[in-house]
């Protein structure tokens, strides 16, 4: 187990390095810079700014010093949000995105796995077909359609919930974004659970349990443990994606999360902010994939041996 | 593999099973209808997709002919102002309008060209003139225009726009999927067939790519370099071939040791030929399912990028672009969101249902 963790952490280093390198050089190759304003600065002022932020040095030297400060845990100052460091910006945005993401993850997992189990048990029946259609529909509803629709229905027409904004995490402001985030994942998880559990329910041990007269609920519980493997494997990257926020949902609902900072940073050529966010997302993907693997090993003893 | 395919070939059986899945067949019909409509529909709506009717902005969806009386009056007032006259009377009988214009000075008849230019009226005929040219009675033909899905903020026919946008969305979905398919199948088949250290290295690379926050990279790429259709296609295909490579590799690993592959090898076929003629055709079942389910994901990704303004650019349009326009005007004209969203969602649901049906039909364990 510990060897698995160590090996995965060792593998993560080149991955994260690749992330840093690709995004660093991608951004520097792109036209435009962080100090391009509507009205161009005086050349001397531009020269000074570039020197202060170290942008006048050769690209490879800049990359080296960025890596050096990164190794000390320093993500650098933000270019577009003056007087703030990237770490401070992430510290502001991450709690917002993570709250929404965690709630959406819990909602989607509970609903999706539950409905998937129902569909697998009723395989081929009317309920299964209805749930199958529901899953296909939920996968096909883009968040940028669902979000304005929810705003119109619950915010403008019924006036039950606020339209947008964060309001320091007031629960009423969370409902619509969380539902929007969770909706497509309910369908994906239900579909995954149905396929995997449906297969597990057709295996020999399950038939034996049935023939021995175990109550159907117990049979499903036994089968579900092994059948959850693909679901857990899917939850790893999903958790990382949800926790780091959704650009669309945060934009439409006006939430100050990571996704918003990322897009604003990209549009303003805020090199360090973009790098910080990309690195954070990549690190979370690695971490949650590892967690998912550990959970799989806990669910299925065979995987512990293989690892 | 030559000669007539027997009736009970696996493909025929799979097709028969697919035909029994009513949901999948219905989905296929919907898809065919949408594709056909997008292909030939824009010529049949009676409107150029780019043609703007300034007097008919943000019309709601309706089957009634336009302009109706209220919009006719508004348009006449606007035009009369440009002709430097007042509308004294306007009486509509069918497609004809008897219009009486009055002014304090003789009316300059050259101004009458504004009427046919507005797209709502034909060429006016002067019926009578009185008070020394200060009062004109005109017979103006009124056009009857139909906007079944309404018009957008510039007064363009939304149905034509949706159909033209559908061409782009569907084309992006198909082309990007095809590119992802080619890369993924080739990569997966080679990795699985060659095996050993090459396989391990190739799949490690795929694992590493999985950990990259790709959506963020796509956004970066499109923000920093001028967003264009080609760049977006490349970006989407570069993201989506990974799943395909994994599926094909897993299939290839089981196929590699099968007798027909050994036989082919014993006959002295080259590796490339074995992969192309024996391995890849046998992986096509799961690949077809994965590809069918990939198309809606690609279309969704394209609309997502276009919604953010990073995808398809004006004057081209796609469902994502139209949805973004609709979301901006949602309070005044909800139909502008509803129409393209309905097209998009119908397409995506159909593709997802078709993929599900295909998966069930190709599953050898199902009866």
The CATH H-level homologous superfamily of the largest domain in chain B: MetI-like
Number of domains of chain A: 2
β-strand number of chain B? 6
* Low-confidence segments of chain B: 1-6
* SSE pattern of chain A: HHHHHHHHHHHHH
Number of DSSP helical runs of chain A: 13
Count of all domains of chain B:
2
Most residues in contact: chain pair:
A-B, 50 and 41 residues
Query: How much beta of chain A, percentage-wise?
Result: under 5%
Explained architecture:
The complex is a heterodimer of chains A (307) and B (367). With 307 residues, chain A is an all-alpha fold. Chain A has two domains: 2-33 and 41-71, no CATH class; 93-306, MetI-like fold. Chain A has helices at 2-29, 43-52, 59-71, 86-121, 126-140, 143-157, 171-200, 204-211, 216-243, 247-252, 258-267, 271-299, 301-306. In chain A, helix 4 (86-121) packs antiparallel against helix 9, helix 7 packs across helix 9 and helix 11 (258-267) runs antiparallel to helix 12. Chain A is flat. The termini of chain A are close together. The model of chain A has no long low-confidence stretch (mean pLDDT 83). Chain B has 367 residues and is α+β, with helices and mostly antiparallel strands. Chain B has two domains: 9-43 and 151-361, MetI-like fold, CATH 1.10.3720; 67-141. Chain B contains twelve helices and six strands. In chain B, the strands form two sheets. Chain B has a four-stranded antiparallel β-sheet, with helices on one face. In chain B, a hairpin with a 4-residue loop joins strand 4 and strand 5. In chain B, helix 5 (158-194) crosses helix 11, helix 10 runs antiparallel to helix 12 and helix 11 (319-328) runs antiparallel to helix 12 (335-362). The model of chain B is unreliable at 1-6 (pLDDT under 50). Classes of the chains: A mainly alpha (307), B alpha+beta (367). Chains A and B meet through helix 1, helix 5, helix 6, helix 10 and helix 11 of A and helix 6, helix 7, helix 10, helix 11 and helix 12 of B.
